[in-house]
Amino acid sequence: MKKTLILALALLFLAGCGGRELANVSLVRTLGIDGAGPVTVTAVAGEEEERSLFHCEGEDVVAAQGTLETLGTERLAVTHVGQVVLGESATARALWDEVVHRDSGYGATVWLAEQGSAYGLLSEADDPAGRLKHLEESGVAAPSLLEAVSALTRDGKVTVPVVGLRGGEIQVTGERELYVDKWS
Q1: Residue 142 contacts residue 135 (beta carbons within 8 Å)
Q2: Which of 9-18, 31-40, 101-110, 112-121 has the lowest mean pLDDT?
Q3: Model confidence pTM above 0.85
Q4: Number of DSSP helices (H) and strands (E) in the chain, helices first
Q5: Helices (H), the chain
Q6: At what angle do helices 61-68 and 93-101 cross, to 10 degrees?
C-alpha cells in the first residue's frame, strides 16, 4: 500500500511537471533555410491567427536551429516540422544537416523558393504552413526530407516543387532539380 501511494504521488508529480513544460513550447510548422554558411533559419510557429515568425543566423543549420530554439518567451520545438523551404542561396547540404543532426520530422516536405529567400517568402505569405499543407493535400508531389536526401545520396539529384507568391498566397510555379554538388 505504501509503495502504491509513493508511486501514485511520483506519477502525479511527473504529470504536473510535464504539463507545465508543454505549455511553454511552440511547435514550428514550417522551416525556411537561406545561405550556405552562415545560414539563416526562419521558423513559422502556431496557427495563422496566432502565427509567429522567428529567424536567426548560425554557422550552419544545426547552430542556427540551436539558437532558434531559445528565441522568444516560449521554447520553439523543431520536432514536428511539416515543411522545409529552401531559399535560392541554400544548398542541398542543409537537407543533409536536417536529416543527420536534427529531429525535424523526416516526413517534412521540401520546397524551393522561386526567387530570393525562404525568409521573404514565409514572412510575406498568408498562412504559409497552411497553404503548403493544402498544396500537399491537393496532390503536389513534394518529396519528404528523407526522400530528398535519399535521392541526393543515391542519384546525385532530386526534383522539388518551386513556390512563389501570387497575391500574398503561395503557389507552385514549377519544379527544379537540386544537385549533390551543392553539398558544400
Answers
A1: yes
A2: 9-18
A3: no
A4: 6, 8
A5: 2-23, 61-68, 93-101, 118-124, 128-137, 145-155
A6: 60
Alpha-carbon distance of 149 to 167, in angstroms, equals 32
CA distance linking residue 174 with residue 169, whole number of Å: 15
CB 21 within 8 A of CB 77: no
> pLDDT (tens digit, 9 = 90+) per residue, 63-120?
888 887 777 666 777 777 889 999 988 877 778 777 766 655 678 899 999 988 999 9
Cell reading at 19: 504539463
Rounded to the nearest 5 percent, the helix, strand and coil shares of the chain are: 40, 30, 30
Handedness of CA 57, 61, 67, 71 (dihedral sign): positive
